[in-house]
Amino acid sequence: MNEIVQQRLKDILKTINDVESYLNKRKFYECHDIEVYGIVHCLQIIGEAARTLPEEFKTQHSEINWQNIIGMRHVIVHEYFKVDLSIVEMVLAKHLPVLKAQIEKILDK
Questions:
Q1: Which one of the listed residues 26, 32, 73, 74 is annotated catalytic?
Q2: Which of 24, 31, 49, 66 is a Cys-bridge partner for 8, taking CB atoms 3.0 to 4.6 Å apart?
Q3: Into how many domains does the chain fold?
Q4: Is 51 a catalytic residue?
């Protein structure tokens, strides 16, 4: 794994850890608007890091749904007012923990 790929994976992992740490004592629906903006921005960062990974790497790790991650980033960046917070909440609860485990597994190899 080259250095750039490793750094992007670490960026994803750090951002997931930041979100988890922040939400540790609260639920997403309890957050104030400014906190929601920050959390959504974290999802944008994850999507941007995924977007910049080489296609070959993403193909090798097809167990990760890169298109959905990148697609969410596109909505956040280009269609911000169409962001559905119930989808964000589902991503945080169900998909982020799975993605974290997948990225950790790749980095541990």
A1: 73
A2: 49
A3: 1
A4: no
